């Protein structure tokens, strides 16, 4: 009997993994229920959490607009190597997801972004975080904030009514030469896919993606570590800081 139970549990785990849809989709899912967390939930290093395609929120906490928050305002904190899958982040939070190291987000949706949907704080130059599938809407400023080192790769993601899909921190006290790549993303009612600091060695690529309504592919900034507002110095691909290929602006 014990052997049968373990086999059934193993089959259920495989089935759940196969059910994770990381294809590009443009319809936001509707959750059947919401879990309100009294405090941020931490996913340990190397561990995985499957949210069951339900909505996850933060108890009485509410969004304070673009006021800078921190980990305490997040719904999930992911330690290095953690994976978060099949989660709908509700509107009742300040920060969404914080990745304290390289992380993977599979089929994660943000229904109403507050300050940031996800913040990447990995420390190693070789660390890579992945966003596979999912989507975000209603972000006054940015969806993905890259404060740490390494690379962020976003694939098959949908964004609607946001400022920037991604921003490499323009004025963090500690700066890095960051890398980012966007593959088969679709944005609408959006200003730009990526904002990066060319003077600090940032590099980004936008490939095979759909940019509707005049959305830009890349804005280039002169970043700093003094806390001052970074200066925008250019836009569009330059073949070095920003590379693009396969960009569509209609019919997609």
UniProtKB/TrEMBL annotation:
The UniProt catalytic activity note for this protein reads: Eliminative cleavage of (1->4)-alpha-D-galacturonan to give oligosaccharides with 4-deoxy-alpha-D-galact-4-enuronosyl groups at their non-reducing ends
Question: Which domain of life does the protein's organism represent?
Answer: Eukaryota
Tell me which Gene Ontology terms the entry assigns under biological process: pectin catabolic process
Q: Which Pfam families match?
A: Pectate_lyase
SUPFAM superfamilies on file = Pectin lyase-like
Per its record, what are the GO molecular function terms? pectate lyase activity
- For this UniProt entry, which residues form the secretion signal? 1-19
User: What are the subcellular locations of this protein?
Assistant: Secreted
Q: Which GO terms describe its cellular component?
A: extracellular region
User: Which ranges form a coiled coil?
Assistant: none
The record's function comment reads: Pectinolytic enzyme consist of four classes of enzymes: pectin lyase, polygalacturonase, pectin methylesterase and rhamnogalacturonase. Among pectinolytic enzymes, pectin lyase is the most important in depolymerization of pectin, since it cleaves internal glycosidic bonds of highly methylated pectins. Favors pectate, the anion, over pectin, the methyl ester.
Q: What family name appears in the similarity comment?
A: Belongs to the polysaccharide lyase 3 family.
What name is this protein filed under? Pectate lyase
């Amino acid at each position: 009997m014990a052997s049968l139970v373990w086999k059934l549990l193993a089959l259920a785990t495989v089935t759940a993994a196969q059910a994770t849809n990381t294809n590009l989709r443009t319809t936001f899912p509707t959750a059947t229920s919401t879990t309100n967390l009294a405090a941020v939930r931490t996913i340990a290093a190397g561990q995985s959490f499957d949210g069951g395609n339900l909505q996850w929120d933060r108890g009485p906490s509410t969004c304070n607009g673009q006021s800078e928050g921190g980990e305490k305002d997040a719904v999930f904190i992911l330690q290095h190597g953690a994976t978060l899958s099949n989660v709908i982040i509700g509107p009742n939070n300040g920060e969404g997801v914080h990745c304290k190291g390289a992380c993977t987000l599979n089929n994660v949706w943000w229904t109403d972004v507050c300050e940031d949907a996800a913040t990447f704080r990995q420390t190693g130059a070789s660390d890579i975080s992945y966003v596979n599938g999912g989507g975000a809407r209603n972000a006054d400023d940015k969806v993905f904030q890259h404060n740490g080192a390494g690379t962020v790769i976003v694939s098959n993601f949908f964004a609607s009514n946001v400022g920037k899909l991604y921003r490499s921190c323009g004025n963090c006290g500690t700066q890095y030469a960051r890398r980012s790549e966007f593959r088969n993303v679709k944005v609408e009612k959006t200003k730009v896919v990526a904002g990066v600091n060319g003077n600090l060695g940032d590099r980004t690529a936008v490939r095979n993606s759909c940019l509707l309504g005049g959305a830009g592919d890349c804005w280039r900034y002169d970043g700093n570590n003094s806390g001052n507002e970074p200066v925008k110095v250019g836009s569009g691909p330059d073949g070095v800081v920003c590379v693009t290929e396969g960009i569509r602006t209609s019919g997609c």
